[in-house]
Amino acid sequence: EDKVVQSPLSLVVHEGDTVTLNCSYEVTNFRSLLWYKQEKKAPTFLFMLTSSGIEKKSGRLSSILDKKELFSILNITATQTGDSAVYLCAVEGYSGAGSYQLTFGKGTKLSVIP
Amino acid sequence: AAGVIQSPRHLIKEKRETATLKCYPIPRHDTVYWYQQGPGQDPQFLISFYEKMQSDKGSIPDRFSAQQFSDYHSELNMSSLELGDSALYFCASSLWGGGDTQYFGPGTRLTVL
Question: Which residue of A has its CA nearest to B56?
Answer without folding.
Answer: A99
